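=== RUN LOG ===
request id: a7f3
mode: sequence -> structure
chains: 1
length: 352
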Amino acid sequence: MNALRKRLPFSGYSDAYVLPSIIRCETNLYLAQFAFMKLLPAKYIIEKALARATLTHGMKVIETSSGTFALGLAVVCREYGFQLEIFTDPVMDKGLENRLRSLGAEVLIITDKAKQGGYQRSRLDALDARMRQLGHSCFWPRQYDTADNPAAYKLFADQISEMLDPGVTLVGSVGSGGSTCGTIERLRQKAPGARLIGVDTFNSVIFGQKDGERKLRGLGNSLVPKNVKHELYDEVHLISASLAFAATRTLHERHAVFAGPTSGASYIVGRWRARKYPRETIVVICPDEGHRYVEAAYDHEWLKQNACLNEGVLLDAPTTENHPSTALPPWNRYHWNRRSREAVLNVLENAS
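=== RESULT ===
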């Protein structure tokens, strides 16, 4: 572990940038609790761009994000003295918006929702128009398709290898695909049998569902990111918002882990997997702490008003569906078996 920390680049934000705490919850269940995971790829992408001179001083950094990748960029841009523009939508919570502005970022909220691709398409279109306006004086980190995003997680994978074993079962939420794909690719260099379980939510197109409204943020997508390498996943689980929120509170109550709903969604999958397969070592990625969600996932009245209150006991197991596109809430499991998205979707087409 000390050797890993010595390989971390020094910065004024090194305390926030350190690797996650590895917390043992059950005999074979571990949580990788990040304070602020998206700072890892944000810093890596910016530093690589500086080294390649694709980003030079005087240029403006622009990106589309409604979550903590925007905050990671704001921290790094503040450190290096770059102006930052973030294209987001009304889903961004006011607390995050305030933090971005306090770090000097300009936050542009796109209110028009595209018929196909939703707000993410509208944000990308607005960013594209801004890039044409700025010309060569701007840099777009491209979190959804740059290879630097997954590459940033090599140190995390090495931490798992040194503390546990590379042949683990990794469980993590899927948004841009960077954390799950980047970590498992590194682990499989040493242990090809290492397993990857992706956690998504309903109405996300990443694994074949139709696009729709999503109350669970931080995972899922209205577009399929290039950094999601579908052939790396062994299983895919779809989790409803109400179940993820209940699991988030359970994680806090049982293990004193104060985390966000993406962590809760992955935790319930990891807990189930650890109990079903006691000989496996399960590592669950917890991307951030729970401060942003105090007035949401941890607020009884908010959950009630948003129809996300789960009064019952957490489900012990998922249902297994014949195809992810037909899966229904609250929790569904699908054997992806390291296939491409096209191969999986063709299974349903050929059957109909």
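=== NOTES ===
The mean pLDDT is 91.
The longest strand covers residues 195-201.
=== END ===
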